[in-house]
Amino acid sequence: GKSIWLSRHGESIYNVEEKIGGDSPLSNRGLRYAEKLSELMESEVGDGNLTVWTSTLKRTHETAKYLPYEKLEWKALDELDAGICDGMTYKEIEERFPDDFRARDDDKYQYRYRGGESYADVVNRIEPVIMELERQDNILIITHQAVLRCIYAYFMNVPQDESPWMTIPLHTLIKLTPSVRGVKVTRLTTDV
Ligand code: F6P
């Protein structure tokens, strides 16, 4: 049967600086994950069939760059748009926009960044991706924390309003194999 592999992009410069959003490149550690991911996928699918889906952002392209498979980029896989908070640290947001910071904590699923998006918005915009995913064979999706939480919640039947709090660490490959008994989940961790 087919499988779906999910991964966040490798560690980015913004991840290291604890800034959200942006379009920064990978750190050296992130690039090492990109190499590891390619090795991992080659042992998973060999020369079998796989298509790699990325967002339009640099950090997902760089994470995909060693993978010798067909690639497709989706704007719908871009990270949740943090609007006026894009490029800030959570500490800066809390200092400059304390009301927004608290409002987001109170209802993280519905909270929409000013000039940006909410998790609910992301769930709506990834719907075509989910539809296409159901029709496809083996797919590896390299995307971002918020988007990955929404996709993962969909397949795991987790209520979407819980998705903003799910833990999806960097440098971990999640393999989903749908079957009649439900979705089998395997987490492949790396030493990067
Ligand atoms: O910090 C990485 C990141 O992908 C940010 O770009 C994004 O705003 C954030 O995670 C989403 O996570 P949360 O919804 O928990 O703030």
Q: Class by helix and strand content?
A: alpha/beta
Main β-sheet: number of strands, strand sense, barrel status?
A: 6 strands, mixed
Assign a percent range to the helix content: 25-40%
Q: Nearest-angstrom radius of gyration?
A: 16 Å
Amount of beta strand: 15-25%
Average of pLDDT: 97
Report how far the terminal alpha carbons are from each other. Answer: 29 Å
Apparent shape: globular
N-to-C series of helices and strands: EHHEHEHHHHEHEE
Strand order within the widest beta sheet: 3-2-4-1-5-6
Low-confidence stretches: none
How many distinct beta strands? Answer: 6
**Can you count the helices?**
8
Q: Which molecules are bound in this entry?
A: 6-O-phosphono-beta-D-fructofuranose
Question: What is this structure, in a nutshell?
Answer:
It contains eight helices and six strands. The chain is of the alpha/beta class and 192 residues long. A hairpin with a 2-residue loop joins strand 5 (172-179) and strand 6.
3D architecture notes:
The protein is built from eight helices and six strands; from the N terminus they run E-H-H-E-H-E-H-H-H-H-E-H-E-E. With 192 residues, it is an alpha/beta fold. A six-stranded mixed beta sheet has the order 3-2-4-1-5-6, with helices on both faces. It starts with a strand and ends with a strand. Bound molecules: 6-O-phosphono-beta-D-fructofuranose (F6P). The site of 6-O-phosphono-beta-D-fructofuranose has 9 residues, from helix 8. This is fructose-2,6-bisphosphate 2-phosphatase.
